């Protein structure tokens, strides 16, 4: 099985490629892990891949084009790869999901940082969002390693085992979508309200989008 990992910190993955079950699978040629430094796909000389969010707010948002360009490069060698964004808003990683993923030939794992990635990446370039639990960590790298490990253990002749995840969110709703420069990417435009400068309207829009996001992705949080 082929794993391709899009990350700002590729050296972190030496923790699983050099030791443990995953390393054993690599040595047996049962799986392979390639890391892709996202900054190599930056469109400016400073190798920046993030920018300030439209509508204001804390933190930075990872831009569309570096991620999109990297995914296109990966698809040249693995045309049927499934792109997974490691996100607290995603489908919970369970044994049954890991088993489902272990049947595929290739996975591309997108590791977010900062406030996350531009929503247009999620809408157009990502096949699935996956969460390792209802909590927030500093980036997607650790989550990607958990997913790689849980899937690799289920591959024939590596190791078969069953894990369960039992976590809960500290906050009631999922986050609202984020957008950053450029304003238009491949015909996809940032919502007009975020460009209006009217903070009350922006806040109302984000509140409504957070509710919509939660209803769409995690209705169980509202049921509680």
Summing up helix and strand content along with how strands pair, one would put the structural category as alpha/beta
Percent helix range = 25-40%
Q: Taking all residues together, what is the mean pLDDT? A: 91
SS strand fraction: 15-25%
Write down the domain tally: 1
- Radius of gyration, taken over Cα atoms and rounded to an integer in Å: 18 Å
Q: Any guess at the CATH architecture?
A: 3-Layer(aba) Sandwich
Number of β-strand runs: 9
The best one-word shape is globular
Q: How are the strands of the largest sheet arranged?
A: 2-1-6-5-7
**What name does the CATH topology carry?**
Alpha/beta knot
CATH superfamily: SPOUT methyltransferase, trefoil knot domain
CA-to-CA gap between the ends?
38 Å
> With helices defined by DSSP (H or I, 4 residues minimum), what is the helix count?
8
Low-confidence stretches: 160-170
> How does the major sheet shape up?
5 strands, parallel
């Amino acid at each position: 099985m082929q794993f391709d990992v899009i990350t700002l910190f590729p050296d972190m993955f030496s923790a699983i490629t050099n030791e443990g079950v995953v390393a054993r699978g690599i040595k047996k040629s049962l799986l392979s892990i390639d890391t892709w430094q996202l900054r190599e796909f930056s469109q400016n000389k400073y190798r920046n891949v993030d920018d300030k969010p439209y509508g204001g707010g804390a933190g930075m948002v990872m831009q569309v084009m570096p991620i999109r360009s990297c995914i296109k490069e990966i698809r040249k060698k693995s045309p049927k790869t499934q792109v997974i964004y490691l996100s607290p808003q995603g489908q919970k990683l369970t044994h049954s999901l890991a088993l489902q993923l272990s049947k595929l030939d290739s996975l591309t794992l997108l590791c977010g940082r900062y406030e996350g990635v531009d929503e247009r990446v999620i809408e157009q370039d990502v096949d699935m969002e996956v969460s390792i639990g209802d909590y927030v960590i500093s980036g997607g790298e650790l989550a990607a390693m958990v997913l790689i490990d849980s899937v690799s253990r289920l591959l024939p002749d590596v190791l078969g085992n069953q894990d369960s995840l039992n976590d809960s969110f500290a906050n009631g709703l999922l986050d609202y979508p984020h957008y950053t420069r450029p304003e238009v990417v491949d015909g996809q435009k940032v919502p007009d309200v975020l460009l209006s400068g009217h903070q009350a309207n922006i806040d109302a829009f984000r509140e409504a989008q957070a509710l919509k996001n939660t209803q769409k992705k995690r209705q169980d949080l509202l049921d509680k």
